[in-house]
Amino acid sequence: MILRILLLCFVLLIIELYAFQALRTLIKMKWVLFSYQIISLLLLVFIIYSFMQFDRSVGQTKMTMFTMGLVLLVYVPKMVLTLVLLGEDVFRIGAGSVNYFIEKNDNVTFFASRRKFVSQIGLGLAAVPFLSLIYGVTVGKYNYKVIKQRIFFPDLPDAFDGFTITQISDVHSGSFDNPDKINYAIDLVNEQNSDMILFTGDIVNTDAKEMHPWIETFNRIKKHEYGKYSVLGNHDYGEYITWPTEKDKEDNFQAIKNLYGQIDFKLLLNEHTFIEKGDAKIALIGVENWGHNFKKAGDINKASQHVKKEDFKILMSHDPSHWEHEVQHHDKHFHLTLSGHTHGMQFGIEIPGYFKWSLAQYVYKQWAGLYENVGRYVYVNRGFGFHAYPGRVGIMPEITVIELKKGKDVA
Q1: What's the CATH number of domain 144-406, 3.30.559.10, 3.20.20.70, 2.30.38.10, 3.60.21.10?
Q2: Following CA atoms 295, 300, 301, 307 in sequence, which dihedral angle do they give, to the nearest 10 degrees?
Q3: Residue-wise over 298-328: b if at least 16 C-beta within 10 A, else e?
Q4: Which of 64-68, 277-281, 352-356, 398-402 bottoms out in mean pLDDT, i.e. has the lowest?
Q5: Which three-class secondary structure state does DSSP give residue 357?
Q6: Phi and psi at residue 113, in whole multiples of 5°?
Q7: Is 199 in contact with 227 (CB distance < 8 Å)?
Q8: Do residues 141 and 172 lie in contact, with contact meaning Cβ atoms separated by under 8 Å?
Q9: How far apart are CA 218 and CA 203, in angstroms?
Q10: Per-residue b/e over 235-256, b at no fewer than 16 CB within 10 Å?
Q11: Where do the domains of the chain lie?
Q12: Helix pair 62-97, 2-26: axis angle to 10 deg
């Protein structure tokens, strides 16, 4: 632990030194440079103090989220500056070595002075994440997008051709701070007029009480003709704080499960139901959280115990790693899995239909949008809310509308 702290301090020192060098190359006024140093020191002290105040018996608070946002806002731009100037140093060392050892030019300084335009480029590049992070906190976290996805299945019952499903996921109600924006999002959900709505987990960050101010708001989600169903996410188990007793933890877990009913969603706990339309039916299966690196409470075999292989099946499973490790090759052939969990790490670049990138892709093979393997699909919702970092950059909060179609996609 001490070694890690020392390593972190060393890295921060390097980042601060390079950032200061860039500023000093462009600005010569001593009072500006001194003010920058004082502000940087005060911010660092505040960040360290805030993290030292973290109480594991309480978990994430508005202050911890603010601090995390501040860390990213302060240090991500400085890291960009550091990389630019570090690249210049590699060039300076290379050029100096050539002059000194090969050309043996004694009239040229081995280590050339920094070039002003390189620092200007570094500051320009650093401004991109700086402004993006500010946008993410002020606008991005509530910049809801309705994403419509049509999926074709050759064996979809005819009666369900054109059946629509609205999916929401990862509400994280304990992070909300703007009732008007949440009401706007609920209006968007209702405007889709889908046949059924599914909620794939994480109604809170940790404590059931986080949802209490929002129950009335989420009860505005209108009744859907074929029902409102949900499953649990990893945060719904209350495992990320230290509880006074196991009974307190269990009481909170029961209260969280009750929350879904209080907003009129039927919670599926390793069980299934059949959605019937005329003489046709499809199986809706809901498992508890199963994550490759998280809680494994989901039991897909139990949940689908009386479901036949030939039945058309929709599975709700919060963590997409479940699809990767268990679902996609399962003998019962789960046609469509709906997941969430990743949030796309709330930071990335996305040009719909052309390009998407996020650090999430280095952790999850399926992290945002639709993926397919031999006719079995998983759709990963980017999340309704936010957690840890109080914003979203590039990867916006999502309301998904999936349309089931009979046949093969000819596109």
Answers
A1: 3.60.21.10
A2: 160
A3: bebeebbeebeeebbbbbbbbbbbbbbebbb
A4: 352-356
A5: strand
A6: -70, 160
A7: no
A8: no
A9: 11
A10: bbbbeebebeeeeebeebbebb
A11: 2-138, 144-406
A12: 70
The two three-digit tokens of residue 185, written as one number: 């999002």
Q: Which of 141, 92, 215 is nearest to 386 (CA)?
A: 141
Structure tokens at 287: 């498992």
Residues 6+ positions from 44 with CB-CB distance below 8 Å:
12
Report which residue type is found at 101: F
d(CA 118, CA 94): 16
Tokens describing residue 193: 């007029």
Given a cut of 90, whether residue 332 has pLDDT beyond it is: yes
**Identity of the amino acid at 329:** H
Phi-psi region of 9 (alpha: psi -120 to 50; beta: other; left: phi over 0): alpha
Record the pTM: 0.92
C-alpha distances in angstroms, 116 versus 95, 125, 127, 334?
A: 17, 14, 17, 59
Q: How confident is residue 322, by pLDDT bands cut at 50, 70 and 90?
A: very high
H or E segment and range at residue 260 = helix 246-262
Q: 106 and 9 in contact (C-beta within 8 Å)?
A: no
